[in-house]
Write a structure and sequence with these properties.
Blueprint (H helix, E strand, L loop, with lengths): L16 H12 L1 H20 L13 E7 L5 H16 L5 E9 L2 E8 L5 H14 L12 E4 L18 H17 L22
Antiparallel strand pairs: 1-3, 1-4, 2-3
Length: 206
């Protein structure tokens, strides 16, 4: 039967010159290819051994909080007198992504989230300038707003537990007046916090 061609465009067979060249080189010069791959492997292992590994790398999370205390004021008044003016003032900060606020009895929280890559120190400085500009709109007897940035590198990296034959109240007293003072004198220690136990308090019953 005579052959005939199918109608329409015929598929083209593409030859990979690079793959053929590598295959031909591997067949004709196997020793050279083995030495080349071995050298790459040795250089990779050597480079891996020289890589620096940090157990707790420095991470900059662009979060800034504004905390304002106004004792004896309800949440509705906190919202209208403090939270709303601070939100309006901080809404024009550069690279601002979202604004979350919480108005509670006697205290106002405003949390500002910035775009990834924003320098949190510069962002906090700009927020402070905005808050200072709105201070005259706040009540006169309100506490000064506190602007702070979230620093994950300042989180505690060491927890110590204390137990013994003493009572819980005595252990807390020992931690507050003896252990905390000595640990704070250790070079490199930024802050020491004591949690738990019974704290002595004085109750006045009328």
């Amino acid at each position: 039967m005579p052959g005939y061609a199918l109608p329409g465009p015929q598929p083209k067979v593409r030859n990979s010159n690079a793959a053929m060249w590598l295959t031909r080189l591997s067949i004709q010069r196997p020793v050279f290819v083995i030495v080349l791959l071995t050298s790459f492997l040795v250089m990779g292992l050597f480079s891996r051994s020289k890589m620096e590994v940090e157990g707790s790398p420095r991470v900059d999370i662009p979060y800034v909080t504004v905390t304002t205390v106004y004792p004896g004021t309800g949440s509705a008044e906190i919202e209208s007198l403090i939270t709303k003016p601070i939100e309006d003032a901080c809404s024009s900060v550069n690279n601002l992504r979202t604004v979350n606020s919480s108005s509670q009895f006697g205290v106002s929280f405003v949390q500002l989230e910035f775009s990834v890559g924003t320098n949190s120190q510069f962002a906090a400085q700009e927020v402070r300038q905005k808050v200072e500009g709105v201070r005259r709109q706040l009540p006169r007897d309100v506490d000064p707003p506190v602007v702070d940035r979230f620093d994950i590198n300042a989180s505690p990296i060491l927890y110590l537990g204390l137990r013994g034959d003493l009572s819980v109240k005595q252990l807390r007293f020992l931690s507050d007046h003896e252990i905390k003072y000595r640990l704070s004198q250790v070079p490199g220690v930024g802050q020491v916090e004591v949690n738990g136990g019974d704290v002595r308090e004085i109750q006045v019953l009328v």
